Amino acid sequence: MSKKAKGLEHTSQLRLYPTPEQGPLLMEHCQEYISTVNVLASALDADVIPHDESITTKDFVAQLPSCVKNQALRDARSVFKRSLE
After folding, report:
1. CA distance 35 to 82
2. Which class for 73: exposed (0-12), middle (13-18), buried (19 or more C-beta within 10 A)?
3. Distance, first Cα to last Cα, the chain
4. Is 39 a member of any domain?
5. Any domain includes 2
């Protein structure tokens, strides 16, 4: 797998129009995601979990897909690092 050159990443915004059935599920996932990031950032701050890359999605429980748990872990590390500045 090749690495992308820096500066070549493109971000697009999109608008979601969930159905009435999808809306509550989307809100639940958003709330679970935010809660997971907050708990992980607090655990990093309290030295409950290691600061290195050894923790994985298998090491914590969240009702989210694995790829979203990975993003939550990256975001929690970012929040923790910004809190040290």
Report:
1. 18
2. buried
3. 33
4. yes
5. no
Residue 55 counted as domain residue = yes
Kindly state whether residue 74 falls inside one of the protein's structural domains.
yes
25: its two tokens: 């599920």
Structure tokens at 62: 């969240």
pLDDT in tens, 37-63: 999 999 999 989 888 878 888 889 999
Q: How many domains does the chain have?
A: 1
- Full residue range of the structural domain in which residue 62 is found: 22-84
Distance, in Å, from the CA atom of 48 to the CA atom of 65, rounded to the nearest integer, reads: 23
C-alpha–C-alpha distance, residues 32 and 69, integer Å:
10
Enter the tokens of residue 66.
Answer: 């694995």
pTM of the shown model = 0.76
DSSP letter, residue 15: -
Token output for 54: 């050894």
